[in-house]
Write the structure tokens for this entry.
Amino acid sequence: QAQLVQSGGGLAQPGGSLRLSCAASAFTLDYYAVGWFRRAPGKEREGVSCISRDGLTTDYPESVEGRFTVSRDNDKNTAYLHLTNLKPEDTGVYYCAISGIGVSTRYCPPLLTQEYDTWGQGTQVTVTS
């Protein structure tokens, strides 16, 4: 069964770092762009990054620009989100997701949930002192 399996996350102090992983199971990740989203308590799900199929195009909202870094290793069939200089407002459940199959290799879809088809199970990130 094709699915995205997430790992990483957990508890961090303000200013700390975490790395999230998103592994594709039973399909080839490099046919898809990958997006990362989060849902903070009481808020709508928001996009925090995307990466194109070839890894050469990335996108971030202003809220995380310069602090979060998205990457992928297509040989390992895995995408990553490195979170640094964490703030309490980064707390939430983080999800990875893939776009429709066969998008242009350099294309990064808009960070809107309707642009992505398949979602990981989510992983909790909690930032607190």
The CA atoms of residues 62 and 94 lie 17 Å apart. The radius of gyration is 14 Å. The chain has a mean pLDDT of 95.
